[in-house]
Q: What sequence folds into this?
């Protein structure tokens, strides 16, 4: 197989098919396991390779010893990256790991329907699952950071993109299924005054207990809805001015050291804050966060608001993109005018089959250019909301070309350029770590560089 063909197929597999979250229970059902590679203090299990290979086959690709070797080689390179990161003191902060772990678990909860359903599916508590996943996630983020360090500053010109595309064998140009561009404007449901009052009263009670001598850290671990910091007793670590949301920061910086704030409200919910330290333009605070129940809120106001906004858009009083930027509650899509992007490629053109199923079912009944009436949905962090969807464009199935698929080809070309740099790095670095490969995999010739 032409090496360019191998790269394109592998790139497309990684960029558009692999899920963007850690697979819980990966390798379940494999009863015989063994260590097949050691890289310093890191190991690769046979179940790790089988899980990667099964994911590869799930796309309907034919079984291949070469493909399995490619999977193993990728795993080895990742372990070398992790080992070298340890040697070179490339460190991922625990705060980042906890934040990413929370984000991914929230995503999973949105897919399963609730955290309780995740626990039922795997027979373990959320905390137990997080504990199991944390080590592998930290390693994954460390590998990513090490790759970024090695390839930072690498750029690619339009001429290089064209040369890359023209070098692909004509019979190997990827065939893309239907792609769509979809936008959304979101309004989160209103929490009632009664819910807010109840939340404030609960936090006031907790604050009184702390003032009367109970331990802030213990109460944060017990009651805080900020699961990432709760594990650290509510401690958020040092933050620079402007890093936290304005309401939180303003309240924290009014405090004297060790003082506890009254209950304050931010976009995340309600907090009590204790200032632990200040040094220059940095401060260290801890908090207890309690969110009102966003699962049971009034959506009447949000629906009426979006109905009115939709009418303005349809009458050309305001464009969809401007309305999204100014009024949408979805901070991820609002800056881009509400247009959704692919999580891996960053492109606004998303394969229809990769759309959120609810969005897919909605736009499948719409014509291009139309805007839906308000529809209910649940945000990734569990809030009840309404949204209107804009079916901006549709691209029929086609072979990749520079006009319709510039971003994908650009990413692939840049990926190949970075791959060459990583190849050179691997060749220089593999002798700096201990690598032992099981005899069953010697035929893979893993130490001959990245193919």
A:
């Amino acid at each position: 197989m032409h090496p360019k063909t191998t790269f394109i197929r592998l790139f497309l597999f990684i960029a558009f098919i692999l899920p963007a979250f850690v697979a819980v229970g990966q390798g379940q059902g494999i009863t015989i396991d063994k260590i097949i590679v050691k890289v310093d203090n890191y190991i690769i299990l046979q179940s790790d390779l089988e899980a990667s290979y099964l994911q590869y086959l799930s796309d309907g690709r034919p079984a291949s010893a070469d493909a399995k070797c490619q999977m193993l080689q990728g795993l080895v390179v990742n372990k070398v990256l992790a080992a070298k990161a340890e040697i070179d003191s490339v460190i991922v902060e625990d705060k980042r790991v906890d934040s990413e772990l929370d984000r991914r678990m929230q995503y999973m909860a949105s897919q399963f329907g609730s955290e309780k359903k995740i626990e039922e599916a795997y027979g373990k508590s959320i905390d137990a699952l997080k504990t199991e996943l944390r080590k592998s996630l930290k390693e994954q983020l460390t590998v990513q950071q090490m790759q970024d360090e090695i390839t930072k500053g690498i750029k690619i010109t339009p001429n290089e993109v064209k040369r890359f595309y023209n070098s692909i064998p004509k019979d190997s140009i990827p065939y893309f299924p239907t792609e769509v561009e979809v936008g959304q404007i979101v309004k989160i449901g209103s929490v009632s005054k009664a819910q807010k009052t109840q939340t404030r009263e609960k936090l006031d009670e907790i604050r009184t207990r702390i003032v009367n001598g109970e331990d802030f850290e213990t109460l944060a671990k017990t009651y805080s809805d900020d699961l990432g910091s709760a594990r650290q007793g509510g401690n958020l670590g040092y933050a620079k001015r402007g890093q936290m949301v304005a309401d939180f920061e303003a309240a924290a910086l009014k405090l004297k050291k060790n003082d506890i704030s009254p209950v304050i409200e931010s976009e995340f919910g309600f907090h009590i804050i204790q200032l632990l330290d200040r040094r220059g333009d940095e401060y260290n605070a801890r908090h207890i966060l309690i969110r009102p129940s966003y699962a049971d809120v009034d959506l009447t106001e949000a629906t009426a608001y979006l109905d009115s906004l939709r009418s303005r858009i349809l009458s050309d009083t305001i464009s969809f993109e401007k309305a999204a930027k100014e009024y949408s509650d979805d901070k991820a899509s609002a800056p881009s005018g509400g247009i959704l992007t692919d999580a891996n490629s960053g492109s606004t053109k998303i394969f229809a089959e990769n759309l959120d199923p609810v969005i897919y079912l909605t736009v499948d009944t719409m014509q291009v250019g139309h805007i839906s009436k308000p529809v209910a949905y649940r945000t990734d962090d569990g809030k009840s909301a309404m949204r209107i969807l804009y079916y901006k464009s549709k691209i029929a199935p086609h072979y990749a070309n520079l006009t319709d698929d510039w971003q994908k080809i650009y990413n692939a070309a840049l990926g190949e350029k970075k791959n060459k740099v990583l190849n050179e790095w691997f060749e220089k670095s593999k002798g700096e770590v201990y690598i032992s490969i099981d005899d069953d995999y010697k035929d893979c010739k893993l130490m001959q560089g990245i193919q």
User: Anything to note?
Assistant: The domain at 178-191+296-396 is CATH 3.10.50.40 (Chitinase A; domain 3). The chain is about 45% helix and 15% strand.
